[in-house]
Design goal:
It is a single chain. The protein has about 425 residues and is α/β, with parallel strands linked by helices. The chain has 2 domains: about 180 residues, Periplasmic binding protein-like II (D-Maltodextrin-Binding Protein, domain 2, 3-Layer(aba) Sandwich), CATH 3.40.190; about 190 residues, D-Maltodextrin-Binding Protein, domain 2. The chain has 17 helices and 12 strands. A 5-stranded mixed β-sheet has the order 2-1-3-11-4. Strands 6-7-8-5-9 form a 5-stranded mixed β-sheet. The longest helix is centred in the N-terminal third of the chain and has 18 residues. It is globular. The N terminus is likely disordered.
Length: about 425
Amino acid sequence: MKFFLKNAILAILFALILSGCKLIPGINNQGQVSLTYWGLWESAVNINRLISDYQKDHPNVTITYEKKSHQQYRESLQNRIEAGEGPDIFRFHNTWVPMLQGVLSEVPADVVSSSEFRDNFYPTVSSDLRNSQKKFVGVPLEIDGLGLFWNEEIFNAAGITTPPKTWQELADTASKLTVRGPTGNITTAGVALGTASNVDHFSDILGMMILQNGGDPKLPTGQQAADALDYFASFARGESRVWDSSLPSSTVAFTGGNLAMYFGPSWRAIEIKNNNPLLKFQVAPVPQLEGGKVAWASYWAEGVSAKSSHQKEAWEFVKYLQQEDVLVKLYSEAAKTPGRIFGEPYPKVSMAPKIASDPILGAFIADAPYMKSAPMASRTFDNGLNDQMIKAYEDAINIVLKGSRAADALETAAKNVETVLSRFGAK
């Protein structure tokens, strides 16, 4: 009987092997590993080139890249992974770590060690991409934040040849460059600041101002936050205002040549150049307070699902993606894509010289060592931590513009912020 059962089991196993049946999910009988990779901004053509190169040395690994829509991406990602159906590798925003605590696998030390995070990447990465246990959970393939875009023709017409380096210089320059019509309406705005309704990336700008002033966007009850909010709103108040809610969105105004200075991330330059190829502009590092140096960080990273059956293989591919020669290839392929003029700014300190002299990206690389982040990042489309924090600050701006004191407006905002942070475990 024992002999019969043993032979029967062997026969069944042999039949399964012949039929190509997968005994372990994601691995077939030849030891093949299948991984799914969700991305957002990079085309399948560019990523598949990298995958093909990787598979030359890893023939047992099959990687399927899917470029996803940003709409409901965060919720879909989280829900699918929690249900055990999500991708093995995925892109996520640097501020999403609290929301994704349960689905982010920890970065193995042999992929990127703590010292490599500290020495190779910009300082903000070591702060942003750690979970509540202080373990790293993502690896960035880019760095981005805010830059000061300035219209060369408007500056030259006023005899100004360089962009402002301090906030006082910016206020003075904006006043000089603002042009009004016969009825007092603004026809050329000096800078897009002061409102929430038509200043794209207003939350990033205000968050950066609070950080520069020594405040904490998560605790907006101190004088530092109130002073930053009051200063932000001052650009859209009174007869000396240089911006107001009657104007089009800041991106549209700058693209149309009716705005002298505009704050935005690097990718906005691509959009602006595509919509107005004749516009002459440059990008400078963001203004600073006297004696300080703080810039804004908002970027994306690659993570691995804690529910993946093949975390080792997934992290090995992420390790490959963050190698310098691979980042250069990704940048180069993106720059050749129709409608693109450059790739994602490099996230590694050692790679700064490669794009430091670029008239657009150079400003972001100059600011990268001083970047800090907070959950007020615009256009993450997360319907969660960022979007709800932004709403709290949007309400505060609108209250101040109606005449309330900034400190009073922030009392309500602080309660809303606390609720949001508690809801997403980000306190």
